[in-house]
Design goal:
- Helix 5 (99-124) packs antiparallel against helix 11 and helix 10 (215-234) packs parallel to helix 14.
- The protein has helices at residues 2-25, 27-33, 40-46, 66-90, 99-124, 130-145, 148-159, 170-188, 203-213, 215-234, 251-267, 278-298, 306-330, 338-365.
- By secondary structure, the chain is mostly helical.
- The protein has 14 helices and no strands.
Length: 371
């Protein structure tokens, strides 16, 4: 059953994030083709703006204007956000290291999405009038992901088997009832590390209590995403304009693939080793971000160094994601309200991405404007 569940969760993660990653890989093309190179951060921001369920009804690359494209991107990113929160909450019912299967799948989505975008780019070439043709072909890249919805449903309903869904014997039922009573008693006595829960606690008070309890983890997760999304945006301007939209793969798309490769490797690492001092990852990612910002202005880093640096950005971001959610799923102190704590931490990812894209847009529209 372990391997079966691992495969199912891996497929869920891959299919859930694939359209989202295609948007991220195509961000430079979408912004540039509408003459909005300095607003590339808005593409990232729109990709996490809402939580909804639509993936492919809008062909983002075939939109009549940049702003209509952003509206379509909102729906693409929304489906990934919705699926992620549901899946992370569902993982509380499984062994904690199963988060590695889900996170590895989301990492694979990044690699597949980037490769798919690069394949279309190499098929039509880059630069000049080919930009318009590439925008139209990206539409078909999204449509190609639609059949995967069927595999997603098969994985969720038929491949994954939750232990709690298995029928309990009489002895198991008695043990479960005793454990539930014991949990209530220990909570009432305040013996758990988690703050004692009032019997008539309001929903808002419960959310605030859990937010404070999970705050350190959530802030680190938010920070590492803020820093890495600024670094990703810098990748579109870190070299002179003449070096973009040429060659195969195009420079920004190639760097995006490097980032996704780093994410995939680190999100698959928790079964080999874990990182408990997650703040170290946040500090290292901050240093990364500053290096990319400075290089946008001075352009002192040679182009052959950039892929390794972008892989490093992905490694730190992926490691923070998988280790923080592993801790939230594994540590006993989160036993009470574990699902709510997980969802609050996941919400902070969105805060970090929106903050990063806002700061990046501000920087590129003022001090680091790309003429």
């Amino acid at each position: 059953m372990y391997i079966r569940n691992w495969v199912g969760l891996f497929l869920l993660g891959t299919i859930n994030n694939l359209p989202y990653v295609i948007v991220t890989s195509a961000a430079s093309t979408i912004a540039t083709s509408f003459g909005k190179k300095n607003l590339i951060g808005l593409v990232f921001g729109a990709n996490v703006a809402l939580s909804a369920i639509v993936k492919c009804l809008f062909g983002v690359a075939y939109a009549p204007s940049f702003w209509f494209s952003l509206v379509c991107i909102v729906f693409v990113g929304a489906s990934a956000a919705f699926g992620e929160n549901v899946a992370l909450g569902y993982l509380r019912l499984l062994p904690s290291k199963m988060v590695n299967a889900w996170s590895s799948g989301t990492g694979m989505a990044g690699v597949l999405g980037s490769l798919l975008y690069i394949t279309f780019g190499c098929a039509v070439g880059a630069g000049g009038n080919d930009q318009d043709k590439l925008r139209q072909l990206i539409q078909y890249a999204f449509l190609l992901t639609s059949p995967a919805v069927g595999l997603y449903l098969v994985s969720y309903f038929f491949i994954i088997k939750c232990p709690s869904m298995m029928p309990l014997t009489g002895v198991q039922t008695e043990v479960a009832e005793k454990e539930a009573i014991l949990d209530v008693n220990t909570s009432a006595q305040g013996e758990q590390e988690f703050p004692c829960v009032a019997v008539k606690e309001s929903s808002l008070h419960r959310i605030w209590r859990c937010t404070r309890f999970v705050g350190w983890m959530a802030l680190n997760l938010s920070a590492v995403y803020l820093f890495e999304y600024i670094a990703q945006g810098c990748a579109a301007k870190v070299r002179p304009k003449s070096e973009y939209n040429i060659g195969c793969p195009e420079l920004y798309a190639g760097l995006s693939l490097c980032y996704q490769a780093g994410v995939f490797v680190s999100r698959s690492s928790v079964q080999l080793f874990t990182v408990t001092k997650v703040h170290i990852l946040s500090v290292l990612q901050f240093i990364n971000m500053m290096l990319w910002i400075v290089d946008v202005h001075f352009k002192f880093l040679p182009v052959h160094i950039l892929p390794a640096l972008m892989i490093y950005v992905g490694l730190l971001g992926g490691a923070s994601y998988v280790n923080i959610f592993y801790i939230l799923l594994h540590d006993d102190k989160y036993n009470i309200d574990r699902e709510l704590c997980i969802n609050i931490a996941a919400l902070f990812i969105t805060f970090g991405i929106i903050g990063g894209t806002a700061l990046e847009t501000l920087l590129f529209s003022t001090a680091l404007k790309y003429d």
